[in-house]
Amino acid sequence: GANPCHVSVNSSNTLLFSGNYHKGIVDAYLLNDEGDIGSIASSIKHTESEVDVPHVHCVVLSPDEKYLCVVDLGLDALITYEINDGALQQKQLLSIKYGSGPRHLVFHPNGKFAYLLTELSSEVLTMVYDKKDGHFQVVQSIFTLPETYHGESSGGAIRISPDGKFIYASNRGHDSIVAFQINNATGKLSTISHTKTGGEHPRDFEIDPTGQFLIVANRHTNNLVLFEIDKHTGDLIKTGEDISAPEPVCIVFPSLTGSR
After folding, report:
1. How confident is the model over 19-64, as pLDDT tens digits?
2. Partners of residue 155 on adjacent β-strands
3. Which of 110, 160, 218, 250 has the highest count of CB atoms within 10 angstroms of its CB?
């Protein structure tokens, strides 16, 4: 279909899941032993309403890979599907604030918390996750932009540090990365800092597997910028020279599965 925008692969490399933005479709494909994409095991089309058009933006596996968590920007919803040999069956639906435009989802390493970034309202939702039935409960909403900023901006990408201490999200317009500290007991966030990305429209960024560095992809200025992460404070420190890259939109390390 037109414009698939996100894929995820399970840890056994037997299933690939794809989210199609313009069609509002979630597909599950079988993978063979060589990793080749085979037949479609399941295809779900989200329902359009009189006021909302589905736009699937993110497909993320739950930590135990029992569920596929689908973020639909157009429907303002987070939908949980149970996975049975590739077949998808809807289990839960969490309605997000109308017009917020949920975009991307990450899980905490402990599997108890999840964090959802909204594109249109520039917020991060802290959620408690119940692995028994794939249910999410929102316990906090926090803005990604400084209180003093009133210009146009939209949420881009969200990442969590490997040690589970910090959350980072990008602001396209304010052109910054916001850093949050995570409360270990509640999962709730507190703002640490906003760091300019050294370019315009940070479409994506990624943390390296060691948790020492963060790389930002600035799409409109065609550059990649490297930051070092202070593992005690969560702050970002720019290091080295920029790298030229034409309209970068995604960064993935080989050890990480899936792409954005």
Report:
1. 999 999 999 999 999 989 999 999 999 999 888 999 999 999 999 9
2. 171
3. 218
Largest CA distance in the chain: 53
Q: How many helices (H) and strands (E) does the chain have?
A: 0, 21
And the tokens for 83?
A: 């996975």
Half-sphere exposure of 253 (CA within 13 A, CB side): 13
Does residue 1 surpass a pLDDT of 90?
A: no
Q: Which helix (H) or strand (E) holds 34?
A: none
H/E element, 185: none
Could you identify the residue written with the tokens 């963060």? Answer: 214
Strands 56-61 and 113-118: unpaired
CA dihedral for 176, 182, 97, 104, sign (positive or negative): positive
Question: How many other C-beta atoms can be found within 10 angstroms of the C-beta atom of residue 79?
Answer: 24
- The pLDDT assigned to 240 comes to 85
CA distances from 174 to 148, 195, 225 (A): 11, 10, 16
List 218's β-bridge partners, or say none. Answer: 202, 223
Question: Three-state secondary structure along 112-130?
Answer: CEEEEEECCCCEEEEEEEE
What is the rounded CA–CA span in Å between residue 35 and residue 58? 21
